[in-house]
Structures are given as C-alpha cells and as structure tokens.
Amino acid sequence: MILNITAVFLCIAILVMAVIAVIHKKLVIAIIASGVVSLFASIIFLLLAAPDVAMTEAAIGSGLTTIIFFYVLNKIRKESNG
Amino acid sequence: MVRKFLIFILIASFSVIFINLYQNFKGQDKLNDLSTYYAENEPQELGAQNLVTSIVVTYRGFDTLGEVTILFLAASIIGFFLKIKESDKQKKRDLRKTSEILETASKILVPLIFLLGVYVFANGHLTPGGGFQGGAIMASGMVLLLLANPEKNVKHSLFSGIESISGFTYVILGLLGIYFAYGFLDNRVLPLGQFGNIFSAGLIPLIYTFIGLKVGSELTNIVGNLKETQKETE
C-alpha cells in the first residue's frame, strides 16, 4: 500500500519535472529538473525490483549526464557571448 | 502555427501508441520458458549468485562486448571533436575559489566513492551491480575530484592506457573460453568454486573487473575532455 502511494507520487513528480525540463526558460533549472527525473526514475526501478538498472540510472542518468550538460552549457554561453 | 500543429500531431500519435501498449499489457504471474531455464539451471551451469550478471556476462556476453564497443566509439568521437590544442594548455581560466565545504568533503568522499565502485564491480556476481555501474560510480568520484580542484587536469594518457589494456584483456579472456571451455566468453575456464563466495563463478568477476575499469576510464576521459575545452574561447 505504502509502496503504491510512493510509486504514484514519484510518477507524478517525474511528469512535473519532465514538463519543467522542457518548458522552463532558465536552462540551469531545466538541467536540474532532467537530473531529478532520472533520480526519481531510479527509485521507481528499485521499487520494481530492478536494482541493477536503478544503479546505472542513478550513476549515469542523474550524476554524470547532469555534469556533462553543465559543462556544455558553460561552453555554449561563452561562445554566444564572445 | 504549422510547427505547433505538427507537435500536436506528434503528441497525439504517441498517445495512441501508448494507449495501445497500456491496453494490451498483461502482467505475468509466472516466468516464461527462457526465464525458467535461466532460473533453474544457472546455479549449476555458471555458479553466479546474481542471475542478471550471469546473463549479461555469459549467456548474452556478446551483446555486452557490443555495448562496451559502442561506449568506446562514443568516447573516441567526443575526444575527436573536442581536440585539445597545445596552445590551449597555456591558457589560464580565472576560476572562482572552490568552497571550503566542497574541498573538505571531496578529500573524505572520493576514496569512499572509489571503494564503493570497486566493491560494486568486484561483487557483481553476488550482489546487484557490476562493471557498468561500478565504472560509472568511479567516474563520478573523478568528477567530484575535478570539481574540487578545477585547476588540475585529467591525465589522458593514463586513462587511455587503462582503457585499452582492459578492453584488450576482456577480449583475450573471451577467446580463452573458446579453447578451454564451451565457447566465446564462456566463464568455465576457471573452476566455478563455492556458490556465493567471492571467488566463484569462474571468469565472471575477472571480466567484470576489466569492464568496470574500461567504463570508468572512458567516462572519466569524456568528462576530462569536456572540462579542458572550457578554456578554448578565452
């Protein structure tokens, strides 16, 4: 029961975060929102008894990808300024 | 206007596809034939406690080799496009000073993160996790190190060396399976050992260690490349 409620809450949170990631004007917030989508998705994978997938999603999806997005964003900003 | 209309059509067709998937979904209350075979015969055949690992490394080992190759290609293409010129190395970036919290935390956390990564891929045949996950964890430890010391650079020659050696060893270990066991990437070259021990499941821990090193050094190289090209346009 508690697991079901948690899963539904996480799914709604994922949808909200995904919409924020698409439509938000500030790119930094959009990147963080897309990282949060991966983090919540990894919790859902854990609830669905797939710990292997959950570890990959948490490490790559919400960790490395977010950092790489930030580096790329920084580079794009510099080029558009100068 | 036309663009919005196209986006609307795209979303509508997606929803049709997903409604179809949702309506045809039937939960299975028992394993299908292939899963039953794996669940019943895997402990005697391969001796790995984690069934997922035995499928990823041995039953479907060739797919894993393909995945590792794809990751290698992605890393080399990124390295090719983000070339670091000699003149860029002299350029200095005016960096903000790293915060005290990040610096201190990185000193304590980075060794622990590395240890966790090694644990995850060395125990890949016993507990959830494996080479890809452990490698990604180690790479995120390296990212923390880079964030805490922004003036330092990744040693690309070291990581490329680790990556090539472990990729080469992975294929050699796979080839050993042809001569000493029942096929390419077969794990029964070494004795299977006691089920559930750290030294068990034949070649699986060795292969996963090399995959972990390869994935970790590749991801570190990607992040290092991206970090170093930050100073290009100054």
Structural account:
The complex is a heterodimer of chains A (82) and B (234). By secondary structure, chain A is mainly α. Chain A is built from three helices and no strands. Chain B has one domain (42-83, 100-229). In chain B, 69% of the residues lie in helices and 0% in strands. Chain B has helices at 2-23, 33-45, 51-59, 61-81, 86-90, 100-122, 131-148, 156-180, 204-228. The longest helix of chain B is centred in the last third of the chain and has 25 residues, at 156-180. The model of chain B has no long low-confidence stretch (mean pLDDT 83). The interface between A and B is medium-sized, with 17 and 25 residues.
Layout of secondary structure:
The complex is a heterodimer of chains A (82) and B (234).
Chain A: H1 2-23, H2 27-47, H3 51-81
Chain B: H1 2-23, H2 33-45, H3 51-59, H4 61-81, H5 86-90, H6 100-122, H7 131-148, H8 156-180, H9 204-228
Give the mean pLDDT of chain A: 87
- The percentage helix of chain B is 55-70%
Distance between the termini of chain A: 56 Å
Strand content of chain A: under 5%
Q: Which quaternary structure do these chains form?
A: heterodimer
Uncertain runs of chain B:
none
How many separate structural domains of chain A?
Answer: 1
| Largest β sheet strand count, sense and barrel closure of chain A | none
The SSE order of chain A reads HHH
SSE ordering of chain B:
HHHHHHHHH
Structural class of chain B: mainly alpha
The Cα radius of gyration of chain A reads: 15 Å
Largest interface: A-B, 17 and 25 residues
Global shape of chain A = elongated
**How many distinct folded domains of chain B?**
1
Helical percentage of chain A? over 70%
User: How many β strands of chain B by DSSP?
Assistant: 0
